[in-house]
Sequence to fold (173 residues):
Amino acid sequence: MAKLSSLDDLLVHELQDIYHAEGQILKALPKMAKAATNPDLKAAFEEHRLQTKGHARRLEEVFKLLGLPAKGKKCEGMAGLIEEGKTTMEQDAEPAVRDAALIAAAQKVEHYEIAAYGCVCTYAEMLGHEEVHELLGQNLDEEEITDQRLTALAETVINPDAEEEGVESERVR
Fold:
C-alpha cells in the first residue's frame, strides 16, 4: 500500500475502499432479497440495489472530478460483513427470524457505509472539494434513510413476526 502522506491521499484511499464496497454490496443484495420471505423486505433490498447502483455512479463522478480513474481497492471490512450475512442466509431458521437476521446483517453494512461516507464527506469539505462533498453527501443521506427504513420495518413487522414465531415454536414443544 502506498504511503498516506496527506488528507488528499487518505480521501482517495477511502474512496477506493467504499467504491469496492459498493460493488460487493451490489452482488450481495440480490441474494439477500432471494433469502428474505417478507415481501416488504424483499422490496427494500431490491430498492437498495438500485440505489447502490446510483452510489457507484456518483463515486465514479467523484473520481472524475478529482481527475482520477474510478477504481476500487479491496474493502476487507465489507467482505467480512458480507461473509457474515452469507452465513446468516445459510442458517436453519424460521422465516421471520431469518428476515430479522437479514435486517441485522443489512444494518451492519449500512452503518459501515454511513461511517465511510461520513469520513469522506468531511475530508472533501475540509479540502475544498465542494462538488465532491455534495455527491458524497447524497450517498450518505441515502444510506441513512435506508438504515431508518430497515429499522422501521424491523420494529413494526419483522421483529414482532419473529417474536410470534418463537412463541409458536415454544407452544409446539
Notes: The CA atoms of residues 6 and 79 lie 26 Å apart.
